[in-house]
Structures are given as C-alpha cells and as structure tokens.
Amino acid sequence: MSGVITHHVPDALLAAYAAGNLSHAFSVVVASHVSMCPQCRAGLEAHRAVGGVLLEDTETVAVSSGLKDDILSMLDAPFIPEPVYERSGVYPGPVMQALKGRAPRWKTLGMGVRQDILSKDKSGSVRLLHIQPGQAVPDHGHNGMELTLVLQGSFSDETGQFGVGDLEIADEDLEHTPIADDGGACICLAATDARLRFNAIVPRLLQPVFRI
Ligand code: ZN
Ligand code: ZN
After folding, report:
1. Residue 115 sits in which domain range?
2. Residue 52 CA, ligand 1 centroid: distance in Å
3. Within a domain: residue 113?
4. How far apart are CA 125 and CA 212, in angstroms?
5. Structural domain contains residue 16
6. What is the mean pLDDT of residues 4-21?
7. Does the residue 48 lie in any domain?
8. Measured in angstroms, how far is the CA atom of residue 142 from the centroid of ligand 2?
9. Which ligand is nearest to the CA of 14?
10. Could you give the CA distance from residue 88 to residue 135 in angstroms, rounded to a whole number?
11. How far is the CA of 212 from the centre of ligand 2 (A)?
C-alpha cells in the first residue's frame, strides 16, 4: 500500500456527523477517519461553517438569543467524539479516548480473528478487530450499516483493497468476506448499527456468544 487514503467518508455521512446525527459508534469511526485524513478534516470544517451560518440566519427570523445560546451549547456538548490529531501508535485520538487509556484487551473469535468491544448500546457497537494475515472475518451480510476503518495493515474483499486510513461502508446490499492481506496483522475499527447476518451456520450459532 502506498499509504494514500483512497476510501473516504461520503459527504452525506460527514454532514450527519457534523450535525451530531450519528450514533456514538459511527461517530467514533468518522472522528477517527477525520483524525487521519486532511481531506475529510477540511470537508468537516466546511460543513460546520455552513451549519453555523444557518443558525445565524435562524436567529434573525424567530429565535431569541437565549434560545440560540441554548442551541449553540447543545451543539458544543461533547456527546459525539471529536477528531483528535494526536495519536498513540496505530490508534487515532478518538480510539484512545474510547480505550480510556488502557491497552486493547483482545478476545479470540477463532480463525485468527480477535476483537475488543469498545462500546455497545441499543444504537450499535464499535470494536477493534485484529486479523492475522490471510485470515478472514466470516462471510456475512448486514442488517444495517457497517463502517470499517483500517488502522494497521490492509484487507481486501469483493469490493476492493483497503489500507491504513481507508473506510469501507457496507449495508444490506453487500455480502462480503474481508481477508487480511499478507504482510502483517490487520487492525480495524468497526462499527455497526445492527447485528450482522452470518451465512455459515456455525458463526450464526456463536453470534450471541461473540455479541457481533
Ligand atoms: Zn478522508
Ligand atoms: Zn461486513
């Protein structure tokens, strides 16, 4: 891999993040990509500038300055992770924040795949995945959306190759088998908003155990 990011956050997703409309899990992934990517950082700043202008316009129509201050303070509230431009090893700032200073606690999923669930609630989950070279995350479909950001190494699936900083977006229409490329373990940050649908019977039986 050349080290150049080729798979970015789509504009609609960046806009949703800028507006605070993404779940915590997806926000961690978007904030992590933006932390690694000057192009999406510029895009995010543009969205925030536009959002600020819209809010100013609203005030001139009907909103009292007190309400406007309330809205602004809500927008400033830290309920979504922000991009952080310091990093620790392969982990961007938002991942370090999610780890709360600890090292990853890898739990084996079998077949060369390990995970550390960073957070999980009704809206979704975000986890680190550690995949040995040549090993695959089991073939699966998705009930919702899945965001996968590469932090170390690279993987390939039916749609292409993803290196450090690249973001893959999978939805109901994609069934894929991500396989870590040769040349070192692949570490990914992955967020989902619904349970994955595994195609093979064994992974499906183990799904409650793995909490994927
Ligand atoms: Zn980007
Ligand atoms: Zn997937």
Report:
1. 102-210
2. 22
3. yes
4. 8
5. no
6. 92
7. no
8. 6
9. 1
10. 26
11. 11
Q: How far is the CA of 163 from the centre of ligand 1 (A)?
A: 12
Residues near ion ligand 2 (CB < 5 Å) are: 146, 170
Question: 203 versus 61: which is more confidently predicted?
Answer: 203
Tell me the CA–centroid distance for residue 57 and ligand 2, in Å: 41
Q: How far is the CA of 26 from the centre of ligand 1 (A)?
A: 15
pLDDT classification of 57: cutoffs 50, 70, 90: low
Q: What is the largest CA-CA distance in the chain?
A: 60
pLDDT digits (tens, 9 = 90+) for 91-115: 999 999 999 889 999 999 888 999 9
The closest ligand to the CA of 165 turns out to be 1
196 domain residue, yes or no: yes
- What is the chain written as a DSSP string? --S---S---HHHHHHHHTT-S-HHHHHHHHHHHHH-HHHHHHHHHHHHHHHHHHHHHHHHT--HHHHHHHHHHHHSTTSPPP---EETTEEHHHHHHHTTPPP--EEEETTEEEEEEEEETTEEEEEEEE-TT-BPPPEEESS-EEEEEEES-EEETTEEE-TT-EEEE-TT--B--EEPSSS-EEEEEEESS-EEESSHHHHHHHHHHT-
Q: What's the CATH number where 168 sits? A: 2.60.120.10
Q: How many domains does the chain have?
A: 1
Ligand nearest to the CA of 83: 1
* 8 A C-beta contact, residue 166 and residue 192: no
- Read off the pTM: 0.79
Q: How confident is the model at residue 199 (pLDDT cuts 50, 70, 90)?
A: low
